[in-house]
């Protein structure tokens, strides 16, 4: 992961998109609702998923559990129309701002966001509390 | 990554925090500004970083490039006071909502967010455009 200073500068301050996929060929992607910025989900993309996302304007991911390319919404109807794609400083993370289709949700459990439980921590014990959605 | 149905149900609908660290011992964490929900950064935590985050109320991460525990802000002053911790459906991602200290930023480049470049895609070519911050 260590880079020469000129590589680092180009990566951080350049205009070239050079996504740094991990050894597993994947890059992490956080997806928010463009309407209000709510974090909907976190998923992964391989090179093909990222390319298809650009080419089609619809979010594609790589499912690590199914080990397959996944156009979000194909079964749920929650197609994500991509409004903006951002990359982070060292180009190893993607941020998608999307307009979710179908019922407007993103989580396979039926909730709007995958982050529907808050951690309540007290006296060294963590407990999950369900958020209103 | 495949789970028995009852494990999956407990993971998704239970009140027990059972973070699923990867084979590298890390879990991915997206960090937002509690003030307006802006995505500030994406980083990783090992078990110790997560525990220290709960115990101290200040965000701790694991630096993959330095291979060391990292209390965000120790050198930059951008200490992140944790206001809320959420976990996703399958408990392999964390969402931190924080109040950033110091100059209110999170990125080592001096910008507020690490996601300061938008991808402009046209005719099969991607180019990075700097966002106003």
Sum up the structure in keywords.
two-stranded antiparallel sheet; homodimer; 2 helices; 38% strand; 133 residues; mainly beta
Describe this structure in words.
2 copies of one chain form a homodimer. Chain A is mostly beta strands. Helix content of chain A is 14%, strand content 38%. Chain A has 2 helices and 8 strands, in the order αββαββββββ. The first copy, chain A, has a 4-stranded mixed beta sheet, with helices on one face. Chain A has a two-stranded antiparallel sheet with strand order 3-4. In chain A, strands 7-8 form a two-stranded antiparallel ribbon. The longest helix of chain A is centred in the middle third of the chain and has 10 residues, at 47-56. The mean pLDDT of chain A is 96.
In short:
The structure is a homodimer of 133-residue chains. The first copy, chain A, has helices at residues 5-13, 47-56; strands spanning 27-33, 39-45, 60-63, 68-71, 80-87, 93-100, 117-122, 125-130. In chain A, 35% of the residues are buried.
Which strand order do you get reading across the main beta sheet of chain A? 2-1-6-5
- Structural category of chain A is mainly beta
User: What share of residues of chain A is helical?
Assistant: 10-25%
* Overall pLDDT metric of chain A: 96
Task: Indicate the overall shape of chain A.
Answer: globular
State the end-to-end CA separation of chain A: 39 Å
**What is the strand tally of chain A?**
8
- Give the oligomer, counting copies of the same chain as homo and different chains as hetero: homodimer
Biggest beta sheet attributes of chain A: 4 strands, mixed
């Amino acid at each position: 992961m260590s880079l020469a200073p000129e590589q680092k500068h180009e990566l951080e301050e350049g205009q070239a998109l050079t996504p740094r996929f991990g050894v597993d060929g994947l890059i992490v992607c956080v997806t928010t609702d463009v309407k209000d910025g709510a974090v909907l989900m976190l998923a992964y993309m391989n090179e093909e998923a990222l390319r298809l996302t650009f080419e089609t304007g619809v979010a594609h991911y790589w499912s690590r559990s199914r080990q397959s390319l996944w156009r979000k919404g194909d079964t749920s109807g929650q197609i994500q129309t991509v409004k903006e794609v951002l990359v982070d400083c060292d180009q190893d993370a993607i941020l998608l701002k999307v307009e979710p289709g179908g019922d407007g949700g993103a989580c396979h459990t039926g909730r709007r966001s995958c982050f529907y439980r808050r951690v309540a921590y007290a006296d060294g014990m963590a407990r999950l509390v369900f958020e209103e959605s």
